[in-house]
Design a protein that fits this description.
Elements: E1 13-15, H1 21-29, H2 34-48, E2 57-62, E3 67-71, E4 77-78, E5 92-93, H3 95-116, H4 122-137, H5 141-148
Antiparallel strand pairs: 1-2, 2-3, 4-5
Helix pairs in contact: 1-2, 2-3, 3-4
Length: 149
């Protein structure tokens, strides 16, 4: 029996143009939870990065259907583990890596909020796993997975 192998194409991300920003959050978090999800991304960033002080966020679509938000920062963000030590504490990360971390954590946390309300977590779980596929191909995958663990 012959098996077919599929060549895995690298995933790509594109910035969402300003004319389509209004559709982004409902697609990422679902209409019912878009404000909760957005707020979780901002709060997670305040916890994760020593020098994060809010600001403008860019939105990105990934070729596999994943999405993430990323801060637009004038300087690299510094990882802060808070009470949890990880080997990358004190390292600087790009806006993209910061966004991948914050969005992943927000999707995970949001799934627990939705579960507690006895609603389906399928949408945010799907978005989380699609984003993990993109992270797996990212140059900073080791750092990102270490922090997410």
């Amino acid at each position: 029996m012959e098996t077919l192998t599929q060549t895995e194409q690298p995933l790509t991300c594109t910035r969402v143009p300003s004319t389509h920003r209004e559709y982004f959050l409902p697609r990422l978090f679902g209409e019912q939870y878009m404000l909760t999800g957005e707020s979780l991304v901002y709060r997670t960033s305040s916890y994760l990065f020593q020098n994060y002080n809010g600001g403008y966020w860019n939105f990105f679509n990934v070729s596999n259907g994943a999405q993430f938000m990323a801060p637009e920062s004038s300087e690299p963000l510094i990882l802060d583990a808070g009470e949890n030590y990880h080997p990358f504490c004190g390292e600087t990360v790009s806006d993209e890596v910061a966004g991948l971390l914050a969005t992943s954590m927000a999707l995970s946390n949001l799934s627990f909020v939705i579960f507690e309300r006895k609603q389906s977590t399928y949408h945010v779980a799907d978005k989380f796993y699609l984003l993990q596929q993109f992270i797996g191909q990212h140059d900073s995958a080791k750092l990102i997975y270490s922090v997410l663990d």
